[in-house]
Each structure stands twice: as structure tokens, then as C-alpha cells.
Amino acid sequence: MDPAMLAAFMARMNLAPDQLLSMQGALSSGSRGLTVRRPPPSFQHDMSAEELTEFLEQYKQWFEEDRTIPAEPAPLFDRSLLISEQHRRRAEVERTLSQHGVGAGVLTFTTFVGLAKHSSQTPVQDLRPARFADMLVRQVHVGHYLLCRIIAPCSRMVAIQTMIEDVDGVAYDLSIYNFPSTSDCTLEHLDALFPVGRILALREPTFKAPMQGDRPLVRVDSPTDISFAVAGSPLLDGVVWQTGAMLPRSPTTMDAWKQRGNNYFKASHWFLAAFAYSQGLSLQPDAAVLLLNRAEAYLRLMYYSGALCDAQRVLSIEGIPDAHAGKALFRLAKAHYGRAEYAAAQKSFVRWKNTHAGDPAADPWIERCRARERERSSGEYDWPSLYCTARRNIRLDIAEYTGPVEVRTMSNRGGGRGVVATKELRAGDVLMVTKPFVSVYESDLPKDKMIISLDLISKTMKDRTGAVSLERIIDKIYGNPDLRDKVFHLYAGPDYMSPPSAYPPVSRDPVSVEPLNPKVDIDIAQLEAICTYNNFEPYRLETHGSGNDKATGLYPLASLFNHSCSPNAFWYCIGDVMIIRATGLIPAGTEITISYCGGLESYEDRQTALKKHMVEHCTCSLCEQDRHDGEDRLRKRHQLQEERVLPAVFSAVSLAEARTIEKDVRETYGRTRGPIRPLLAIALHAVAEKLRATGRPRQLREALQKDMEAFRCFGFEVLGQGGTQDSTGLPIGTAHLPAQASSNLRGLGDMMLRVAATYVELGEEANAVQWIKAALWLTKTCVGDGKELFLILHEAAMKQVNIYDYVDRLLR
């Protein structure tokens, strides 16, 4: 910038000579711009798995190389031009959204997780103010906060993008990620949160070099690094904006903020309502009506900690009207319930009922509290009801249960944690019933927008639900600060300190939620790592085989179980609730393991799945046997599983061709290998179905032989060709369940029922009854007691082979 242009620019910004001197470093760099960086590698949506891994390796190398470029002053830009550019960007987004109607395709965005990001842990009042003149590009400004003002309307791609200026009138871009309520919001929603004139204090800001062009930007990854400086804030004491006053069109009285909040509430904009009530409370902190209204908004947001604190504040105010006290008490009770504090919730609901004679509003809540307390203490649930409810509503209202297990430090795992049995356990014993901290299903996602999340930790592409789950975890901690340790005490990988040996963490008192000045610190980089190491892909029993609702869930307690492909416990989900049960005898003091993958996958696919959980080398018996088979056999088996051992293939081929596939699969297992051969089991059952379809007695008996061998290959103890039973009267051993049961519970029961149907067709009713009872035992042991649930689970399979009415009569 030449001297004449510089002088004109400084005059437009009303900067005095002493301020010019303080900015000399930045100004002197303006003529040459930022250091030219090597462009990052380019991502293509159609990359193969190998190409994606290579790309992510290259991208991480590029990122680390870029971090070695020294920090430097930022070039200056004309404020008015930046504002014009942001208006143009906003108009482009508006035009894109207006044209993106039904049938217009899916908007796709790409983001990365696993890169270094800074999140502040220091309260804003303990930081020193900084201006852009003090800041360097490619630097985190630890120990400082940037007081800035929004000077142009927001736009939105993955991040919220806008333009800010500091007190000197120096302007740059601002990108905000992960802010609550904004993941799929309208531009009008952003305008309400971040209007022109809004003043922000950004804790320890990162001043980043641009990916393209020469304009650096301030990037905020954690919403807890943003404080909103409203009228009366100490952050504004003595502050004079060089470009003059610029006030957002905002209310100036408590009543006006209440009305704005009420309008948002009526429109179901819960966060905006709470945000408006918070600004009213900044003017009158003990306004009972605003606290009551905000508590209700927090309940809708599931910010139970914030709702509880607001309700308690109302009840602590002397002389409040009875109507206010009643509302506060009811909202207090609902907040306790949301926090799983069922005894406290019941007590508050009873208190409310005692002061509202004849009003039944609390009655169903009191009954729910009692039901939750019974579930928590006994581990007994109404499984048929839960199963039927989960078909309609994924998220179930139940209490969590922890059985005879505890978390311990495992010396055989290098001091890491694991879960052990505290008493002897047997097949089917319930070890844990647990709800997710957050779960996201495909059905939760917008249909017209897709975010591709590339994970530089695991070197994989996350499912669509994975990117959204991170946002929802952030939102839940933001609104429930006391739950932070429940997530941040999970393992985050070798780059972070080892978590405490004890888990779960000691419960904390509720913490108030103040959107203007958050009371919790959320480290985004650590949280991304925690999600990479701990997220599950919930397998829902009620959608068995549909494969159309991929999901991501963070189950903190379940993530403490270590992995084995041949575990001594299995898990599945009904709705979003995870149930973990023992596969067989587990002596007290024994470590309990679960499988992070299904167990029926090929060795290669299991290793790919485990890579997402950062399990590099599984030493379980199944993997050891697979490796002992040799690479050639493993490669051939994987190819068969990918190309030939498929329902569509078996339905299309002849019996002879099906036998050939079975023979080819059999040859991929070594002669000395143990009985567990999952892919052979699948092929054997497919051949049995082909034989069964002939309807001829000889082929039906061969089908039974094939299925018996299939059961043994799955891991069952088959006690005879059908007629021989043990003391239970069943044709299978009941001491243990197959390790792969969790991914095929309904399928195994269906197989037993098809065996029973075959015996019916052969006129051997006694054997048919025994296999029906075997299927009933399997359901009872794995899912829960009750003939009703058994009939629901296997209705389709029984009707397909025409034995539903027969079984129904038998079980009456």
C-alpha cells in the first residue's frame, strides 16, 4: 500500500498517529501480503478407500508443514470493501437457498476433524484485551481476548461466516464453528444471534492464514470461547469504537426482551428464546418471569442443568406469587427427571400435587418416576413394550442399569481401564442397560444437505451421522455443564493425558447456563479425538436387516469395555438403548469384553471397522485363527464374502451352484482350525434353504444336516441330529451363546424356526417342538422373557414357513 493510499485509508478509519505507530508491524507487511503457502492436496468424492487413506496422510503432512511457517503480521484491507464482499457472499447464499428446492439435489460440504485446534480454558475476565495490531497470523493468542464487533450480515456454509472489526476499526473475516442451534438453521436465525453491531469477546483467538486468497481470518471452534458483551458488561468499560456507534436493533428493556423471547418461544425457536430471556436477565438478574420462561425453554432444549438452576433461583426469591412458585416447582421436577434424578423428581412432583388438589398433571410423572426407580434398582424392563415403542420412536424413556460389573485399571492393558465382573455371571445375565450421551440416526438428518467429515486421526471418512453427533455432544455439554467430565474423562488417544482410573466421574451439582458468558470450557480437538476412539454404530434389533438407518452414538459407560472379536459379552440396541449381556460363564474378577464390530464380517472388514476405533491389532481367538489360515485363504474368503456369499446370489443360483460356493468357502478354512467358521455357517444355511425349497424328504433331511453344521460353525453346541437333548430338553447346549450373537440375534432364531418347520413337514412333531423351544430359549436369554416378544420378533419368519399359528397354539 503506497503512502497516499495508506493515509487515505487511515483517515477513513479515524486512526490517530499513535495508533498508526502501534500498528506499524501489520502495516509494513501489507505491501507484500502473507507468506505464500503450498496449496493443500485436493479431495475427490469418488476416492477409493486406499486413495482416501493416502489423501488423509498427505493432508496431515501438509497441515503440519504449514504450521511450521513463522507467525507474521497481517496485511490490512479496506473495511468498506470487506463489508461489500460479505454482503455479496450473503446474497449468494440466499440465492442458492432460494433455488435449492425439492428435487434440486443435495448440497455437499467437506470438513476435517483431528486437526490441531485451540480452545481456551481461562475465564475471559482473567485475560488481557488484544487488538488486531497486536496479533499475528498463524498464532493462537494465549492470555488475550479480542473485543470485536460484527459489521456485516452472516452467511453459512459449514461455519458461520461474517466480518468483524476491533476497536481500531481494523476488519477481518470471522468463522464460527459448532455454535448451538445453528447446524441447520435459517439465515434469519443467524441474524438474531449475530446481528450487525453485536459485540463479542473471543477468548484466546486463533488468527489463521486463508486456504485461498490473501485474507487471514479469525477462527473460533468452541462456542464456549465466545462471550457476548451486552450493555453494562465490564468488558465495555472505557471502550471507544473508532468507527463510531453501531447498535443492533435490539430491545433496551427487560419487558421488551421478554416479549421477544416469548415470540421466539411461540415459534418453537427454543435457543433464540433462551438467548432473549438471558439478555433481559442481564438487565434485571432476579426477574422471576424471565427465569421461569428461560427454564421452560431450557427444558425444550434438554438443557436440564440450566432449567434446574433457573427454577431453583425462582424458588429462592422471597415473596414470589404462588403461581410462579408452582410453575418453578413443576419445572424443577421435570429438570430432575431429565437429569435421571428420579427420587428428587418424584419428591418435587408430589410437593406440587399436594398444593394443586384435583389437578392430575403430576400423576403420570409420578408413575414414570416410580417405574424408572424400579428399572434402575432391578434391571428388569418391559422388553415387549420397549421393542414395540422403538419401532415408532427411537429414543426410549427408561432408567439406566449397571449390573455386577465395575471399571478397574487393567495391568495387562498397560494400565488402561476395563470392565470386570464382580460376581459369577452366566449366559444372558444383564450386565448393563445404558442410554447414549448423544445418538444420531440417518432419519435425523436433513435430506438436502450432506457434510462429509474426514477424520485425520483414524484416516477414515465418518458417516454423515458422525459429523452431526459431534455438534450434538457440544450442544448437550453447553446446556448441561456438569456433564462435561462424563465425556472428557473418556480416552482421547496418546496425544492427551490418560483419563482418571475411576469411572463414571463423581456427580456434580447442576451448573447454571448463561449463553452470554458460558460457564463451561469445551476443548473441541480433544472432543473430536474422544469421538473417534469411543463412538459406536448402534445395531438396532427392531430394524434387523434393513440397513437403512446408519447411526452414531456415544455410549460413555459402554466405551469402557475393551474389544474382542470373540468376546464374553454381546450387545445390541432396542431403540437407542444399549443392552449388554454375558455370552456364558464369567467368573468373578474376569475382564468382560464386547465386539466393536458385528463378528460375521471377514477378517479384512473387521480390521477396517476396528481402525475407526483405533484398534490396531486384535489378538482374540477368532483373529488368531483367521491369521493362522494364511493370507491367501483370507483374501479368497473376503472375495467370496464380497461377491458370492450374498442373499441375492444364492436366490439366483441353482442348488449345484450353491453347493459349489459352499465348497469354495469351506476350502478357505484350514483343516486344523476350530469349529467357529462364520462364513461357512452362512453358506451352509443358504444351501439348506435351497434343499428345503425342493420339498422332497431326502433333501429336507440333508437341509437339516446342513443347518446343524451351520449352528456348530456359528458356535452353538448341537447335542444331536435333532432328537438328542440335555437336561433342559433342548437340542442345543445352553451354557454359552455364540460370540457373534449380537449381530444376528433374530437371524439365529429364524434359523431354528426354519429347522422346526422342516421337522413339521417331515411329520416329526416332537423334534419340531424342541427346536421351537430352542428358539424361545434363545430369545429369552438374549432379549428378554415373554412369549409375546418372541412372537413379535419372529412373526415374519414363522409366517413365511407357515408355522405361526402352530407356534402360537404351542406357546399358549
Can you describe this structure?
The protein is α+β, with helices and mostly antiparallel strands. Among the domains are: about 5-35 and about 70-235, Beta Barrel (OB fold (Dihydrolipoamide Acetyltransferase, E2P)); about 255-375, Tetratricopeptide repeat domain (Serine Threonine Protein Phosphatase 5, Tetratricopeptide repeat, Alpha Horseshoe); about 620-810, Serine Threonine Protein Phosphatase 5, Tetratricopeptide repeat (Alpha Horseshoe). The strands form five sheets. Strands 2, 3, 4, 5, 6, 7, 8, 9, 10 and 11 form a ten-stranded mixed β-sheet that branches. A hairpin with a 7-residue loop joins strand 13 (about 405-410) and strand 14 (about 415-420). The N and C termini lie far apart (about 90 Å). About 45% of the residues are buried.
Features:
23 strands, alpha+beta, OB fold (Dihydrolipoamide Acetyltransferase, E2P), SET domain-containing protein, Serine Threonine Protein Phosphatase 5, Tetratricopeptide repeat, 812 residues, single chain, ten-stranded mixed beta sheet
CATH superfamily of the domain at 3-35 and 70-236: Nucleic acid-binding proteins
Biggest pleated-sheet summary: 10 strands, mixed
Total of helices: 29
Spans of at least 5 consecutive residues whose pLDDT stays below 50 are 1-31
Write the layout of secondary structure elements.
Elements: H1 3-12, H2 17-22, H3 24-29, H4 49-67, H5 79-99, E1 107-113, E2 128-130, E3 139-140, E4 144-150, E5 155-156, E6 160-165, E7 171-176, H6 187-193, E8 199-203, E9 206-208, E10 217-220, E11 226-228, H7 254-266, H8 270-283, H9 288-301, H10 304-316, H11 322-338, H12 342-354, H13 363-378, H14 383-392, E12 401-402, E13 405-409, E14 417-421, E15 430-434, E16 438-441, E17 449-455, E18 460-462, H15 464-479, H16 484-488, H17 524-534, E19 551-554, E20 562-563, E21 569-574, E22 577-582, E23 591-594, H18 603-611, H19 621-629, H20 631-643, H21 647-652, H22 655-666, H23 678-694, H24 697-714, H25 745-762, H26 765-782, H27 787-793, H28 795-800, H29 804-811
Parallel strand pairs: 1-17, 2-4, 7-10, 20-23
Antiparallel strand pairs: 3-9, 4-6, 4-8, 5-6, 6-7, 8-11, 9-10, 12-15, 13-14, 14-23, 15-22, 16-19, 17-18, 21-22
Helix pairs in contact: 7-8, 7-9, 8-9, 9-10, 9-11, 10-11, 11-12, 12-13, 19-20, 22-23, 23-24, 24-25, 25-26
